[in-house]
Write a structure and sequence with these properties.
With about 475 residues, this protein is an alpha+beta fold. It contains 12 helices and 16 strands. It has a 7-stranded mixed β-sheet with strand order 11-10-12-14-15-9-16. A 5-stranded mixed β-sheet has the order 5-7-8-2-13. GO terms for molecular function: acyltransferase activity, transferring groups other than amino-acyl groups. Pfam families: Transferase (PF02458). Keywords: Transferase.
Length: about 475
């Protein structure tokens, strides 16, 4: 993948990144907005609309047209910096926005074929659909944002890719709302529209002697994780679809069960209910290699904006993510649903309620003090890349863990005004093909937590575990479709 040339490293402005920005995983998340595009003669108009929308959003947030590169002047090792030009000087470079017309053999599918197949992730080739890699090469400069408009037969797939040091999921929601709004309205571009750049969360000053070690936080503590011998196994990712009716029944049954359980939380979300089911199914698939008293966990990414003191505004543009872990012993998620011969029966409501309650308890722990303690530790680190490595080791995705993030609100309901698209809202929301064992996401959903739309889940597992999870005895009994597994 092309990197920025050295000539692009001279900028007029620098945005100081926060401890959240510096310690987040340094990757590009490739988010694909898929639209039918039946009339190819409207391509030029569509491209112009996208360019105008990007220009408008750059006026609001000039740094999104900037560059993330190593900060050799920082006191920490491996720190990065975000530099940019004022928008009326920098404009839109080709590293920010590109257009491609794709056809066989490079991209051998028409849009209707992909839609019929459920827009499978295996067709979403990151080497074709985006101009930036998932994992940037260390020590090299990369764009803060890269957008690629991919025109295929009968369709348009737009890839939005933010460098994670620049934007988290909450920032992406803010961006995509403004971007889509700009495609619906003709916007005048002049110097009067340039918005001042808001500062990021500051480093904690006067840290003192009470700063905690990173491993003192459970989500970064891998000391009890056993050493595993590396062995090759095929990893895959599937999209599991649950109907709204199934989800409503699942949530109702779990909430009724919780009323019978001592010390159970008074509320669990539908996300916790669905995630509890997924968690149990994965542990069941892995059970032959997990000791009964091993701790299984599901790491949960939390938007910290509303729990910090003072609170950050909802539209704060930057990273504001902390993690928490829901945990259970393996036997807690298995024994109640096993017979005397240790054969598994269908997943019971009681076990799902236990898992959902652990999810809720983990999320409830995240308050202002929780965030503040971690921010203080992040501020004191000599190497800001340490939390990412520690979290990966502690979650142990290939054995006892899952790494969960909800993308439910990330753009499924937003209306676009791009000339030529066959639907106002995105028809399919996907990410590029990148199988990661233990990665679990709820994909964007029309209606958010309400309504009649299906729920889609992206789940990455070893092929062996995936076949068990998707079987009719397990999640196959709950789903209406599993894309890439059976169509």
């Amino acid at each position: 993948m092309p990197m920025l040339s050295p000539a692009c490293r001279t900028f007029m402005e620098k945005l100081e990144l926060s401890p959240f920005d510096q310690t987040i995983a340094r990757l590009f998340v490739h988010k694909l907005f898929c639209f039918p595009f039946p009339d190819a003669s409207l391509q030029d108009a569509a491209v112009e609309s996208l360019q105008q929308a990007l220009s408008a959003t750059i006026l609001k947030w000039p740094f999104i047209a900037g560059t993330v590169s190593p900060d050799d002047d920082a006191p920490q090792k491996h720190a990065v910096k975000l530099e940019y030009d004022p928008p009326l000087i920098g404009g839109i470079g080709e590293h920010v926005f590109t257009v491609r017309n794709l056809s066989a053999p490079e991209f051998p599918w028409a849009y209707d074929q992909l839609a019929e197949a459920g827009m499978p992730l295996s067709a979403m080739n990151k080497d074709v659909l985006t101009s930036v890699p998932e994992w940037p090469a260390p020590g090299q400069p990369y764009p803060a944002l890269a957008i690629q408009a991919n025109f295929i037969e009968g369709g348009l797939i737009i890839c939005f890719a933010f460098h994670h040091a620049v934007a988290d999921g909450g920032s992406f929601i803010t961006f995509i709302r403004a971007f889509a709004d700009a495609t619906r309205h003709a916007i005048r571009h002049d110097s009067a529209m340039v918005m001042p750049v808001e500062p990021r969360v500051c480093y904690t000053s006067h840290i003192g002697a009470d700063v905690r070690e990173l491993q003192s936080f459970p989500e970064y503590d891998s000391r009890s994780v056993p050493v595993h011998h590396a062995a090759y196994k095929e990893i895959t990712t599937r999209i599991l679809t649950f109907s709204a009716a199934t989800m409503q029944k699942l949530e109702a049954n779990i909430k009724a069960e919780l009323k019978t359980m001592p010390d159970a939380p008074s509320f669990v979300s539908n996300i916790a209910c669905l995630s509890g089911l997924i968690w149990i199914a994965v542990v069941r698939a892995r059970r032959n290699r997990l000791p009964p008293f091993a701790t299984t966990k599901i790491g949960i990414a939390i938007n910290a904006r509303s729990v910090m003191t003072p609170k950050l505004p909802e539209d704060y543009f930057g990273d504001a993510v902390v993690h928490t872990n829901a945990t259970a012993k393996v036997y807690e998620l298995l024994d109640a649903d096993a017979d005397a011969a240790h054969s598994l029966k269908p997943i019971s409501v009681a076990t799902m309620a236990l898992a959902a309650s652990r999810m809720r308890q983990a999320v409830s722990k995240v308050n202002s003090e929780y965030v503040s303690e971690r921010l203080k530790t992040f501020s004191a680190l000599s190497d800001p890349t340490e939390p990412c490595r520690a979290y990966t080791a502690a979650i142990d995705n290939s054995h006892t863990g899952l790494d969960f993030s909800s993308w439910r609100e990330q753009g499924a309901d937003i209306e676009f005004g791009i000339p030529g698209i066959g639907t106002k809202t995105v028809q399919f929301w996907r990410k590029t093909w990148s199988p990661n064992e233990g990665a679990y996401n709820i994909l964007p959903r029309k209606g958010g937590s309400k309504g009649t739309a299906d729920w889609e889940v992206s789940l990455g597992l070893s092929m062996e575990d995936m076949e068990k999870v998707c079987s009719d005895e397990e999640l196959g009994a709950w789903t209406t479709r599993i894309v890439d597994y059976r169509n």
